[in-house]
Amino acid sequence: MATYGTLLIPLPLDRAAPVLHEVRVAAYAAPAGPGFCLVHPDRLIDGNGVFSVAGPVGAALGVPVLAAFQYDGERLELEVWRDGGRAHRYDSAPYDRDDKPADGTPADADPAAFLDFAAGPVDGHRLASALADTPLDERDMDVDGEPGYVWAQGLHWDVLAALGHPDRVIGRAQRDHCHFGRAPRVLAELLESGELVVLGTAGSRDDTP
User: Fold this and answer.
1) How many helices (H) and strands (E) in the chain?
2) Sorting pLDDT into bands at 50, 70 and 90, what band is 208?
3) I need a surface site. Which of 5, 97, 106, 187 has the fewest CB within 10 A?
4) What is the pLDDT of residue 104?
5) Is there a contact between 131 and 90 (Cβ–Cβ < 8 Å)?
């Protein structure tokens, strides 16, 4: 499963882009429905990963930022940044950390921490269930009977869906900077249409997996 890192920002792209250019983040940015945009940082550049740039981006824009990093289908990390500082961190796989809870449940699964990123009516039950790593759809469950989501992408999908984001936006939120470079024709079309904007040095080199 592909790894990806994205920022979800509660500002339309036309308002965020001028400031994002000044922050000098190497990334692609895209609209994400009314009132939101997505930023796909080039994580192959040192110091340009989602958790490194979320603070400066949020401070410059004056809005909270939701940074998401999904690793190989196995782990979802979400960080909420406000006023340049990390306000909340969620980890779907705390058993990878020394301070794991005895039952192995996700750490810091507080639905209220994510309400600033709602794009419509919030499905509180779905949001709480997703953050607790308890899928409501049987298709997201492990066929071997293990608890939790089979893939971290499914958990991320349910979090954003519960916050009212449409499928098209969620699908785009699960793209990595590298993914665009693997489809140069699609990338060119997105750039030409204005659906994707180059920030900083993004796109100045060939992307690699």
Assistant:
1) 7, 7
2) very low
3) 97
4) 56
5) yes
Q: 31-70 pLDDT, tens per residue?
A: 999 999 999 999 999 999 999 999 999 999 999 999 999 9
Widest pairwise Cα distance in the chain: 51
d(CA 107, CA 77): 10
Distance of CA 118 to the CA centre of its chain: 14
Helix (H) or strand (E) holding 81: strand 75-82
pTM of the predicted model as reported, rounded to 2 decimal places: 0.88
pLDDT of residue 179: 87
Tell me how many degrees the CA angle 46-171-56 measures, rounded to the nearest 5: 35
Which of 42-46, 107-111, 123-127, 146-150 is predicted with the least confidence, judged by mean pLDDT? Answer: 146-150
Sign of the Cα torsion 36, 165, 132, 29 reads negative
**Residue whose C-alpha is closest to residue 80's, from 164, 2, 10, 12:** 10
- Find the radius of gyration of the CA atoms of the chain: 17
Judged by DSSP in three states, 68 sits in strand
**Number of alpha carbons in the 13 Å side-chain half-sphere of residue 65:** 29
- Among 208, 201, 205, smallest CA distance to 25 is for 201
